Amino acid sequence: MSNSQLTFRGIAPIHSPLSLYLGVDQFSPTFISSLKSVNLEFSTDDNGNQVEMNWQGKVLHLGGQQNEVIQYQSTDDNSKDIRLMCWSPSKDPNVMFHVFANHIAIAEVEFTVDITALSTSTGSVDSLIKVLESRVQNIAKEQITLHYEDFCKDLKQLHPQLSKDFVFSGESSADIGTWIARTLILNNDDIQQESTAKILTSWLKNTSRPQDAADIISGHKNYSMTWLNYAVKNAKAVGEDSNIQIMVLAQYYYVAQEHCNSALRGSIEAAYARVKKHKIDKVLANTRTACRLNQIAFYENIKFLNRPNRALLENILNGWQFEQLVENSDRMIEICNARLQEEDNKKRERSTIMTDFLLVALSFFAVFELSLYLTEFSREMMSRPALDYNDSKSSYFLGLIAEIDADIMFSFGFGLTLLLIIVYRYIKRN
User: Where are the membrane-spanning stretches (predicted)?
Assistant: First the structure.
C-alpha cells in the first residue's frame, strides 16, 4: 500500500429479511444438520422437477462452522458459530454479509481510500481524520447498498429450501441508518511510516483507549477495538480475521439488544396510549419473551467462544456499557410485568363483577320462585283441605301466606334479594 492510500473495513448492522421464528434453538443438532444438508445447486419446483439455482452471490458457512455433535474440540477455535450463514457477492470478495437471527445481518466491506486530495484540502491530521471518517462511512454505505438487493434475492431463493423454522419478511430496502463502524487496516510496513503513525494516533485519539496507537506502533498490540474507530494490524481476508469476527459478533449482540429495547419502548408506549389499537397484553407478553430469549441466548452462547475471543468480546461490550443496556431492558420488562398485572387484575375484576351479576340474577329468581311457590302452595292447601288430612288442624303459617296479596309477596322477594345484595357488598368491602 502506498503512502497515499489507506485500507479500511466498514462494519455496519443491516436488516436481514431472513430470520428464525421466536423460540427456535439454532444450536440443536437436528437444526444444524438440516441446514448443512441444504442443496445449494438445485431446487425442486411445484412439479417435483430439479431446477438449477440462479445465485447472485455465494452462500457460505450455511449452518455455521461448528461440529453439531462434538463440542470443545480445540482451544484455538470457537465451539459454536452463532451465524446462520454468510453471503458474499460473486465478483467482490471484499464484501461479506454475516447473517444472524432476529432479522439482523452485519455487513463487512473492505476498500481503499486515496488520501492525497484529502491531505491537500485539510490543514492538520485531526482535520484529515474527520474527513476520513465521513468518507469511509459514505463508501461503506455505497458498497452495502450496491449489493443489498442481490443479497435479498438470494435469501428469497434460499428460503423455500430451508425448514419451517425460518421466516422471510420480504423487505428489500437497505436499512443502514444505525451506524457504520470503521476499521483501519495496517501492516508492518505501514507502521514504520511516520505519516501513517500520526494518522493512527489521531484515528484512535477519541476512542476509549487512545494509548492503543502507541502499543500498535511499538508492536505490543495488534488491534484496537473500543469505540467506532478501530485499527487492526496484519488482518486476514474479509470474513476470516478472528478479531474482526468478534467485533462483528459484538455488533450483533449490541444491535439485537437495542432492537429489543426499542420494541419494549414501543410496547410500553402502546400499552399506556389513550387509544388502544391492539391487545396490549399479547403485545407486551410477546415483546417481553423475545427480549428474555435474546438475553438467554447471549449468556448461553458466549460460553462456546475460546478464551481469547470471549475476553475480547467482553472487553468490547464492557467498553460499550452493554450491561447498562441490559439493565435498562430489565427495568422496561418490570414495567411490562406491572402493566400485564394491571391487565390481569382488570380481567379478574371484570370476571368478579360478572360472577356477582350472575349470583344476583340467580338469587333473585330463587327468592322470586320461592315466594311464588309459597303463595301457590299455601292457597292450594287452603282451597283443598284433603291435602292436610294428617294434620290436626290447618297450618296457621300457610293460611297467613295465602291471605297475602301476590304483588306483596313478589315485592317481598325483590326486597329480600336487594337486602342480600347490600349485605354481600358490605361484607366484601370490609
Answer: 357-375, 408-427
